[in-house]
Specification:
Blueprint: H1 8-21, H2 25-34, H3 38-50, E1 73-79, E2 84-91, H4 94-107, E3 110-111, H5 112-117, H6 120-127, H7 129-132, H8 135-159
Antiparallel strand pairs: 1-2, 2-3
Helix pairs in contact: 3-4, 4-8
Length: 160
């Protein structure tokens, strides 16, 4: 994958994502523990997803589509500052946008090594997503994680 498409517009969106979510993955885990039932937890996920900026329609192309998701999902990873990466993603499903928000909180702003060393399955387990997502949503979530890892791995290989 070529990084030549990175431009100031996408860097602006990265900054916007960080400020829009205004939370950390640790706070999301704590909030999940405080919420009583799964209906409330899914509502909270949907609210997180609503805070994400929309992906530019020009980026909603087959090249950025995540295969294996029930909903339509587009995902881009662009280089940030200090060898970090910024993830930009969108979906046509509200719950999936919430799952994207969780992924952004886990991976955004990390180096390639940090991304590849992060155990997102542990976070999903802490949130209970491993047990409470439908099989198709769970597959889609893992497809998004695999895509993040694949693109990050490719960037490491291109750099060496």
């Amino acid at each position: 994958m070529s990084w030549s498409g990175a431009d100031s517009r996408m860097n602006t969106i990265s900054i916007e994502v960080a400020f829009t979510l205004d939370t950390t993955i640790e706070e999301v885990i704590d909030n999940f523990e405080l919420l009583g039932d799964w209906e409330e937890r899914f509502s909270y996920l949907i609210e997180l997803g609503k805070k994400l900026p929309a992906l530019d329609p020009d980026d909603m192309v087959e090249e950025h589509r995540v295969n294996g998701c029930q909903a339509s999902v587009w995902l881009r990873i662009l280089p940030g500052t200090n060898d970090t990466y910024n993830i930009h993603a969108d979906s046509d499903a509200f719950i999936v946008k919430g799952l994207i928000a969780v992924l952004l909180l886990i991976y955004n702003g990390k180096t390639a090594k940090q991304i590849l060393d992060t155990n997102s399955s542990k976070v999903f387990e802490q949130l209970g997503l491993d047990k409470h997502l439908s099989p198709t949503r769970r597959n889609g979530l893992h497809s998004m994680v695999n895509r993040v890892h694949s693109i990050t791995n490719d960037s490491i290989n291109q750099a060496s």
